[in-house]
What does this fold into?
Amino acid sequence: MKSKFLEIFKKKNKSKIICLTAYSKNIAQIIDKHCDIILVGDSLGSVLYNYKSTRSVTLDTMIQHSKSVRMGIKKSLMVVDMPHNTYRNSSEALKNAKAIILKTKCDAVKLEGGKKIYDIIKILIKNKIPVMGHLGILPQSAKSFKVKGIKITERKNLLKDAKTLENLGVFSIVLECVETSLAKEITKTINIPTIGIGASVNCDGQVLVTDDLIGLNPIKVRFVKRFANIKKQINIAIVKFKNEVKNKKFPKKVNSY
Ligand code: KIV
It folds into this structure.
């Protein structure tokens, strides 16, 4: 196992794994020293492009943003989401995953789903492409965004999916909006790290969309906590700039040639 993956793996049951999203070099540079994993999430579709769902995100868009993010990362493990309709069958998945790895120099790709994509995950791993799993709410195919793991059959299926994904060789699994006690059971049962989003403190690590936690993206959902109000800070700076321009205080001689 490569050292970055090993480092993350070794944190299970010891210390929490920190994962955040980045869509650009500038944000990646800021978060890199604090993160174990940086995810170029297809959430960029709604956060940056106002798409109604992540289903509209293309491979080219993911690759473009990932190239920028790559430039901002020195130490974290970089994972790139495979967007919707890029892994409908094994050959499509392999071709697109190889393109993502080759063009963005990321360390791994993330795919959403359980049973339906077992064969696809198997092929990628057989071809030495590291994979992060994603279970629970699957935004690329979700019809509703309700918590997962309330009904008994759903709980059994999710646990089975997690165990199978581990056996297939994924290096960790994102659990999105999975009920607290089920997230705990999955985390206890499997030997690879679980990374939760709306899936309780019981997971081995947590992931959030950076734009949400810094207050740049005005989203109000239960699993997001806003740790800063960057929009306010930007506004203050822009007002200062505007006033100095209007009052001819900027640019000064020192800013001019
Ligand atoms: O697309 C994304 O940002 C994600 C995380 C929220 C897990 O998949």
The two ends are 54 Å apart (CA to CA). The pocket of 3-methyl-2-oxobutanoic acid is lined by residues 21, 39, 41-43, 81, 174, 197, 207, 209 (CB under 6 Å).
